[in-house]
Write a structure and sequence with these properties.
Radius of gyration: 26 Å
Shape: globular
Number of strands: 48
Strand content: 35-45%
Oligomer: single chain
Helix content: under 10%
Distance between the termini: 39 Å
Structural class: mainly beta
Length: 714
């Protein structure tokens, strides 16, 4: 042990000596060590500047209003013997000449893409000003926005002594007078308190970048959780956006008032949220899924055009053609989240499973049912640049993975191979398969184990793969009913960014039983950095968005779009889905290339329950025709297809046409009418008189598609 310590010390000295020769143009390497017994902070850094001592100052946060001088040194190491009481409330500026380096435990732990704010040391407007200053670079469309690989998360520490992060303002969040936070692409806001009211923000706004701000249909990839909004919450978004565990004290709208035309969006998802003073309005949204929210009294309409599902909500709108209130959420586990506990340590709260849930999971004084896990002892904190080997090693050692914001380039899949393992992403962290010969398998594979949680991740593929996410192998048959598998806030993206041709069988396949999915966007990109139309049909190949073979799978908020065959293919028993949104592939070049059931049926149904299934139920479904990249003669026979069976039923279905000459000719099983004459709705189809689909065999991924180096654990 003594030899090991001496060796480590010698290595450290060697690094310090070598670092003294670092060029001023190179990045300064630095380190901070906290001695808990002595309560001291020791800083070290590589040389920078040209002359004079290094001046060391300390503030309570990165953007603290005041930094105090704590010493100076000519060396590359400094010890602060009297730091602030809370070890995370020590941010050091080391300055020499005109160069300043900031060193802190939080930056060392979480890297450069997580920003922390502390009202105890900062002015109310500090966080808003910094976040908004980044918006022009990371928030807008084009190369700086929708397709960037930049990722970031903004975390707010709990307020004290009735302070807030609201610098004041008035009007709707989109107005200059509101002084709102503008949240851009691949960005996340998180409160670090125990309950949402611990972090009070002013206004939040997501600015659409299309049609002068009127079109939010591409306002993707952003999230907010565990905070209170005191004024306006203008969550102007579409797919792959998540608002969870929120306290909304006032809100005026969900669609912005930027631009001079009507507003429209294709969102969205919100859950576990309490509105205290006003009922929001989703006017202009095509669809929306809301789960376990509390609204002020009333039951009037709250906007939306085609498919609005309200599940486990208190005071939802009345049921009508477009609104589907569902009394309870049959089984749910809320998404885990980062917080600071009473002992000052960072932890991840892992909520408990709940059944037949109505309303939110928390109260003004209670986090809710669940357990906190210490981040330092139980988790591996992954940073951009970490490899699949490092992440998989940490999983095998029994640690959960917290993905800080970043673009993770992998050469092999992440393999979740133990019970209760958790993958949790922040800032829309992206797990990306790079184009290497070895990597032909997928982004994430989870074994058939109890209690696995995968949350907050975007899966990309720059290479041909079997699929992107796989839950259980083909023989999966374990009973997870006592401790199901949870998948929440998951995005799978095919195309849009890579230049080479790729082929993927399915974005996601769920083979395990008792899986709960809470908000998916499975997206074969309909637009991107490359040419579309017929070229995209060949370049970005993917048959299915989702294949479900497991039994007792329950999905909430399922968005699946533009895949080339059945976009959702369900083969498991007793499946349930609450809310489904879909657009078909825009780019099928002709009908011959896009026909199903042995060429006898035009196109592929968006949601297909196989004829072998005996029991299934889905509520709240929308499929919208947009056939634009075609020869003008491409149609879809059915929006949805199920067997004519007494215990298989779909409820509240809607089809319509948004653009292009083609149509969805029937809602379900050759019934319901064509979108050629407007929106069509079917309230219920259950063992109906429509055409029973032809029997067919489905081409599913099998073990032969796995490379030899993957070990398929039972």
């Amino acid at each position: 042990m003594i030899k090991k310590v001496i060796s480590l010390f010698a290595s450290f000295l060697c690094i310090l000596i070598l670092s003294s020769f670092v060029s001023p143009n190179q990045k300064v390497q630095h380190k901070i060590v906290y001695n808990k017994k002595k309560h001291t902070m020791t800083l070290s850094w590589s040389a920078f500047g040209s002359s004079g001592n290094y001046i060391v100052t300390r503030g309570g946060s990165r953007l603290a209003s005041d930094f105090v001088n704590v010493g100076s040194t000519s060396k590359l190491i400094f010890t602060d013997n009297k730091p602030n009481k809370d070890k995370y409330e020590n941010y050091y500026k080391v300055t020499r000449d005109s160069i300043t380096v900031i060193i802190s435990l939080e930056n060392q732990m979480f890297g450069d893409n997580m920003y922390f704010y502390d009202r105890k040391y900062e002015k109310a407007e500090t966080a808003r000003n910094e976040i908004n200053s980044q918006f022009p670079a990371i928030g807008l469309g084009g190369e700086n926005g929708e397709w960037t690989t930049k990722r970031q998360a903004y975390y707010f520490k709990a307020n004290i002594d009735d302070q807030t992060y609201d610098s004041g303002g008035s009007g709707s969040a989109s107005s200059a007078e509101a002084n709102a936070i503008e949240l851009g692409f691949y960005s996340h806001i998180g409160g670090l308190g125990k309950v949402p009211s611990d972090v009070k923000l002013g206004s939040i706004f997501t600015r659409p970048h299309l049609s002068g701000g009127a079109n939010a249909t591409c306002t993707f990839w952003r999230s907010v959780e565990n905070a209170a909004v005191m004024r306006d919450f203008a969550w102007t978004v579409s797919q792959s956006t998540s608002a969870r565990r929120m306290l909304i004290e006032s809100t005026s709208k969900y669609i912005s008032d930027v631009g001079n035309t009507n507003f429209w969006g294709s969102g969205g998802f919100i859950a576990d949220t309490h509105y205290t003073s006003s009922r929001p309005n989703w006017g202009g949204q095509q669809q929306w899924y809301t789960r376990n929210a509390v609204f002020p009294s009333g039951s009037g309409a709250m906007g939306g055009s085609y498919n609005m599902v309200w599940q486990g909500c208190i005071n939802p709108p009345k049921e009508d053609d477009s609104n589907s209130p569902i009394l309870t959420t049959p089984i749910i586990r809320e998404k885990p989240f980062l917080f600071i506990d009473n002992d000052g340590e960072y932890k991840v709260f892992v909520p408990a499973w709940q059944k037949d849930k109505v309303g939110v999971s928390w109260s003004s004084t209670d986090m809710g049912k669940g357990k906190g896990q210490d981040l330092i002892t139980s988790w591996y904190i992954a940073k951009e640049g970490d490899t699949d080997m490092e992440i998989n090693k940490a999983l095998k050692e029994g640690r959960n993975i917290f993905f800080t914001p970043g673009h993770y380039s992998l050469n092999a899949p992440i393999q979740v191979n133990r019970k209760d393992a958790i993958l949790l992403g922040a800032g829309i962290a992206s797990v990306t398969l790079e184009p290497t010969e070895k990597n032909i398998w997928g982004c994430i594979y989870a074994d058939d184990k109890d209690g696995i949680i995968i949350s907050g991740l975007l899966m990309d593929s720059f290479n041909s793969t079997t699929y992107q996410v796989r839950i259980g192998d083909e023989g999966a048959n374990a009973d997870h009913s006592a401790n199901p598998i949870l998948l929440s806030d998951i995005t799978c993206r095919v195309g849009g960014v890579q230049s080479k041709n790729i082929q993927i069988h399915a974005s996601m396949q769920i083979n395990s039983n008792n899986v709960v999915g809470d908000h998916f966007w499975l997206w074969r990109a309909d637009h991107g950095l490359q040419k579309g139309g017929d070229v995209r049909w060949i370049r970005d190949r993917c048959k299915n968005g989702l294949i479900v073979t497991g039994d007792d799978v329950t999905l909430y908020a399922l968005f699946t779009e533009h895949y080339q065959e059945y976009e959702v293919l369900w083969l498991g028993e007793r499946g349930r889905a609450y809310f489904f949104q879909n657009e078909p592939p825009y780019d099928a070049p002709n009908q011959a290339s896009w026909s199903s059931q042995g060429g006898r049926v035009d196109g592929f149904a968006a949601f297909k329950v196989a004829n072998i299934v005996e029991e299934h139920r889905t509520i709240g479904m929308g499929s919208y025709a947009v056939f634009t990249g075609t020869d003008g003669n491409v149609n879809k026979k059915n929006g949805f297809e199920i067997p004519n069976s007494p215990n298989v039923k779909l409820e509240k279905m809607c089809t319509t046409r948004f653009a292009g000459p083609g149509n969805i000719q029937n809602v379900i099983n050759s019934t319901g009418g064509s979108t050629a004459t407007g929106a069509k709705r079917v309230a219920l189809y259950n063992n109906g008189e429509g055409t029973h689909p032809y029997d067919e065999e489905f081409n599913l991924p099998d073990r032969e598609s796995y490379p030899a180096y993957i070990k398929m654990e039972k």
